[in-house]
């Protein structure tokens, strides 16, 4: 499991480790085909040992946010995370303010792990850029280039659609797209463009065909791809180990 490997390896390398979750949800979610609840990404992060030094959670759904606050208070009463209501793209400046407050004057002695798990291609590249600027920050992103693109690809290609433009941070993203577009070819094209955009921020190059981990549903349909981005090569060793021993079914990737 990546978080376990990450936290154990980084506990003596950095004075402070921070966790950000931009689409936190309610902290718990129902298992498929079951009424049983399972831990969502905030609970998974809060439960890890050794712990992060601080947590920042963002959630735009008011009901989910209230449930998250109540569940953290009940299950993790010693933790006092920063909880930010609203869309992460609209609240990124506030998230940055919280992050700066936590980091203080530690600067490069702090490492932040940012988990992004949207329901569609909702996160904007500009949001990622603002968070990553002048910081040591790793990203794990559930990139919705599976079922979402299969269902909505024609709408995304429309001249009036800004979804992919916002995701890639580029208004001219269609240049080079070519003809005879299909959902798989669009997904690969967008994945490659996104990897190039991350590389422009100083992140090590990733190849979507090799490095993105597909997450499938019970019908073996790809829902999304898990992308990992870091500026340090050692982090990719941890990521490879996590994929080897945990894989896409690990609780790390549960919402």
Q: Roughly how many Å apart are the termini?
A: 15 Å
Strand content: 15-25%
Q: Predict the CATH topology.
A: Rossmann fold
Q: Describe the biggest sheet?
A: 7 strands, mixed
Number of strands: 9
Strand-helix topology:
Blueprint (H helix, E strand, L loop, with lengths): L1 H9 L5 E6 L6 E3 L6 E3 L1 H7 L6 E6 L2 H14 L6 E4 L6 H12 L6 E7 L8 H8 L4 E7 L3 H11 L5 H6 L14 H18 L7 H4 L1 E4 L5 E8 L3 H13 L10
Walk me through this protein's architecture.
This protein has 255 residues and is of the alpha/beta class. The chain has one domain: Rossmann fold (3-Layer(aba) Sandwich), CATH 3.40.50.150. It has helices at residues 2-10, 41-47, 62-75, 92-103, 125-132, 147-157, 163-168, 183-200, 208-211, 233-245; strands spanning 16-21, 28-30, 37-39, 54-59, 82-85, 110-116, 137-143, 213-216, 222-229. A seven-stranded mixed sheet has the order 5-4-1-6-7-9-8, sandwiched between helices. Strands 2-3 form a two-stranded antiparallel sheet. Strand 2 and strand 3 (37-39) form a beta hairpin.
Which features characterize this protein?
seven-stranded mixed beta sheet; two-stranded antiparallel ribbon; Rossmann fold; 255 residues; single chain; alpha/beta
Task: Describe the structure concisely for a colleague.
The model is unreliable at 247-255 (pLDDT under 50). The protein has ten helices and nine strands. A seven-stranded mixed β-sheet has the order 5-4-1-6-7-9-8, sandwiched between helices.
